[in-house]
Amino acid sequence: MLLFIVVIAACSRTPNNNVGMTGVGNTGPGGGAPGSQQEFLVSVGDRVFFTTDSSSLTPEAMATLDKQAQWLNQYANYRILIEGHADERGTREYNIALGARRSSIVVNYLVSRGVNAQRIQSKSFGKERPVAICNDISCWSQNRRAVTVVQ
Hints:
Belongs to the Pal lipoprotein family. By secondary structure, this protein is an alpha+beta fold. It has one domain (39-150): CATH 3.30.1330.60. Helices cover 42% and strands 15% of the residues. It has five helices and four strands, in the order ααβαβαβαβ. The termini are far apart.
């Protein structure tokens, strides 16, 4: 009986190892450590979406980019890569050019919000790296994007 009580007591103790709710140290619920790439992804968002054949920023995209700019200005030690992407429709050449316009508009927007241009690179992947593959608007809309990769 004494052994049973000792085992139960040991199991009910929480070790004092500063592991938060995420299991990744003292990071809070799901956001990653302040200034980490994980925090950027979860708290700010790493991608913006575009409409068909467009490189114009939507109001939702601008709101996300405003949060990105604020985070990037706070954590100026990171360099970033802006990846431009397109959906599978159209030629490879057209989609590379469209992805380049998309990444360029994001770079320009971030720079206009105070992010140092020397920290930013951009690259177009066109339709070469889809996140969703199907012949439907639900997939195409996910692939028309620009992604900010924190390096």
